[in-house]
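Supplementary notes for students who missed Thursday's class. We covered one full example, reproduced here. Read the sequence, then the structure, then the short commentary at the end.
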Amino acid sequence: MTPIQASKHIQIRGNKQTVTEDYALMSKRSRAGKNGKNLMCPHCQHVSRIYHLSFSSLTCPSCKTDVDKYEWLIDQTDTWRTPK
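Structure (token representation):
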């Protein structure tokens, strides 16, 4: 099974479309920010929160697979701009 490379969840209610999740492959320019970012495992799609990106690979806590840094999917939505 090949790892996923992107994931997007879109809700549609009437004429209104809302993107609730948007994940893409991590790049060199990815930053966690002061509030952290959600990372999704490309194998089991388990989501975990991380506050720094100073690693070369991580082990997924769910499926126990060792995943390289640039294979992880990072959340692309701006959570600080999302109205509550």
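Commentary. The two ends are 37 Å apart (CA to CA). The chain has no helices and seven strands. If anything here is unclear, bring it to office hours.
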